[in-house]
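Reopening this one. Same input as before:
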Amino acid sequence: GSKFIEGAARQPDLVPLLRTQFFIVMGLVDAIPMIAVGIALYILFAIA
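Same output, byte for byte:
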């Protein structure tokens, strides 16, 4: 988050590109634990 704001302050014309990259990275960071829980539940109930 802070690096996004720092980059936006330095290069205001790159804000759309930085914002897109920021949301992609934050979406992946948010999705990885959910994917891990889904795989764990699959292993727990489907295989065991």
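So the earlier flakiness isn't reproducible anymore. For the record, Residues 2-47 form one domain.
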